[in-house]
């Protein structure tokens, strides 16, 4: 599961707060990796990317006390855009593209 959260800010402490939030998320079971990126075209545009074993891991992480304390206030500043995505194709550098079955129930 991929969680992608968009922000629009020029707050001087944003990168530091995002690092604290990312560390809180990274400490949770099911966390695979995460990154904070800033747009090369608009310095106010940021994205927080995290990858999880499954949607349940991500949802349980959001309920953790440390995450509520350090990540939830930052996530509350996010732009209102879809943020949770299934990873359906993977490829390592120079590797073969591997398809995964959807976790969604049929008919969604």
- What structural class should be given to the helix and strand makeup? alpha+beta
Largest sheet: 4 strands, antiparallel
| Shape call | globular
How far the N terminus sits from the C terminus, by CA atoms, comes to 17 Å
| Percentage of residues in strands | 25-35%
What is the CATH architecture assignment?
2-Layer Sandwich
Low-confidence stretches: none
Number of domains: 1
Radius of gyration: 15 Å
Describe this structure in words.
The chain has 108 residues and is of the alpha+beta class. 29% of the residues lie in helices and 27% in strands. The chain has a single domain, classed as Alpha-Beta Plaits (2-Layer Sandwich). A hairpin with a 6-residue loop joins β2 and β3. The mean pLDDT is 93.
Descriptive tags:
108 residues, alpha+beta, two-stranded antiparallel ribbon, 27% strand
SSE blueprint and pairings:
Elements: E1 2-8, H1 14-26, E2 31-38, E3 45-52, H2 55-62, H3 65-70, H4 72-75, E4 84-85, E5 89-90, E6 98-99
Antiparallel strand pairs: 1-3, 1-4, 2-3, 5-6
Short description:
The chain has 108 residues and is of the alpha+beta class.
């Amino acid at each position: 599961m991929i969680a992608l959260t968009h922000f629009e800010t020029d707050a001087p402490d944003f990168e530091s707060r995002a690092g604290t939030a990312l560390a809180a998320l990274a400490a949770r079971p099911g966390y695979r990796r995460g990154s904070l990126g800033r747009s090369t075209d608009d310095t106010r545009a940021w994205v927080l990317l995290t990858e999880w074993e499954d949607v349940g891991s991500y949802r349980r992480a959001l309920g953790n006390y440390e995450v509520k304390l350090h990540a939830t206030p930052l996530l509350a500043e996010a732009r209102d855009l879809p943020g949770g995505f299934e990873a359906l194709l993977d490829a390592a550098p120079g590797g073969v593209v591997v398809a995964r079955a959807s976790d969604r129930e049929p008919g969604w």
